[in-house]
Design goal:
There is one protein chain. The chain is of the alpha/beta class and about 325 residues long. The chain folds into three domains: about 70 residues, Erythroid Transcription Factor GATA-1, Chain A, CATH 3.30.50; about 55 residues, no CATH class; about 110 residues, Leucine-rich repeat, LRR (right-handed beta-alpha superhelix). The strands form three sheets. It has a four-stranded parallel β-sheet. α14 packs parallel to α15 and α15 packs parallel to α16. The longest helix has 17 residues. The protein is elongated and about 110 Å long. The chain starts with a helix and ends in a 7-residue tail after the last strand. It comes from Rotaria sordida. This is Nuclear receptor domain-containing protein.
Length: about 325
């Protein structure tokens, strides 16, 4: 008896993709994949789906996934009907409307008019409105400029580019010692641009620059630092000298045209005496005189500085 029942099952052909099919779905004999495809795309597929071949794609069991638009059109052409879908969308709408009626009180005409006349607020406006800080517009602009300068010159973009290039290489060739050392050198050399290209830093007074440098230099890992044309002066040199005693990575310092007088040279000499990393010092275009030169010469005898530049510097 079981054999007789099995023999009566006749496999027919899906009207959409020509694959084997047994049952009729939505008015047409179709296979299960085409049935699911039509259920998912019948209501909105005509507006969303597109064909790159102007609707002339051939649909069969081997390429039915290549063009969803032509596959859907073939479903409609062969008689599949959207009316036979048991869509849950209208039920959800009715349910949501009932929930609104039950949870929200009935609006009167006056309250509805007031709600319509209210202007919609964007999220950014709400954020500004909820801000309770005491900063004014100029201070906010200053913070914005500092943040932008840091994003451009902090070395983050260099690191991201390096990671992207390394990920393209085979696993055995990634993150070799030579490439990692080159990355660190690039980041150290470019870190000075954070100060050099920061207009707000250059607009600070000499005292403010000195305090800022004193607070940050000893906590950084710079190898090269350029403070050219920054009016360091005696106050800045005093803080810089303290930072030189604490840094363990700085090898090159450029103080060209930084208003280094004899007093500033004395402070620098004190800092250089206890520094063990600096090898190059640029003092072009300064006016520290013979007295300042004497202080620096004594400091050079007991530290690691090997190159000093004095061209166009007033000594006598």
């Amino acid at each position: 008896m079981n054999r007789k029942r099995q023999s009566t099952i006749v496999l027919r052909e899906c009207k959409i993709c020509e694959a084997p099919a047994q049952y009729s779905y939505y008015g047409v004999i179709a296979c299960s994949p085409c049935k699911i495809f039509f259920k998912r795309n019948a209501e909105r597929g005509q507006k969303v789906l597109k064909c790159n071949s102007d609707g002339h794609c051939e649909i069969n069991s081997n390429n039915r996934y290549h063009c969803s638009y032509c596959r859907l059109m073939k479903c409609f052409t062969n008689g599949m009907q959207t009316e036979m879908l048991r869509s849950s969308l209208p039920k959800r709408k009715k349910k949501s409307e009932k929930e609104k009626m039950m949870t929200n009180p009935v609006e009167t005409t006056s309250t509805a008019l007031v709600r319509l006349n209210q202007l919609e607020q964007f999220p950014t406006l709400n954020l500004l409105r909820s801000d309770q800080s005491t900063l004014d517009v100029d201070q906010w602009n200053l913070i914005s400029n500092l943040s932008r300068c840091y994003d451009e010159h902090s070395g983050l973009s260099i690191g991201q580019t390096y990671m992207h290039e390394q990920n393209k290489l085979p696993h055995k060739l990634r993150y070799k010692c030579a490439s990692v050392s080159e990355l660190y050198q690039m980041m150290f050399n470019d870190a000075q641009l954070l100060y050099k290209n920061n207009r707000d830093f250059r607009c600070l007074s000499a005292d403010d620059r000195s305090i800022l440098l004193h607070s940050t230099l000893s906590h950084t890992t710079l190898s090269n630092l350029t403070l050219r044309s920054n009016d360091i002066g005696a106050n800045g040199a005093q803080y810089l000298a303290e930072a030189l005693q604490n840094t363990t990575t700085l090898t090159m310092l450029n103080l060209e045209s930084s208003n280094i007088d004899s007093v500033a040279a004395q402070y620098l000499a004190q800092g250089l005496q206890n520094n063990t990393t600096l090898t190059e010092l640029n003092l072009h275009y300064n006016k520290f005189g013979d007295e300042g030169l004497e202080y620096l010469t004594r400091a050079f005898q007991n530290n690691t500085v090997r190159q000093v530049f004095f061209s166009s510097t007033v000594i006598s």
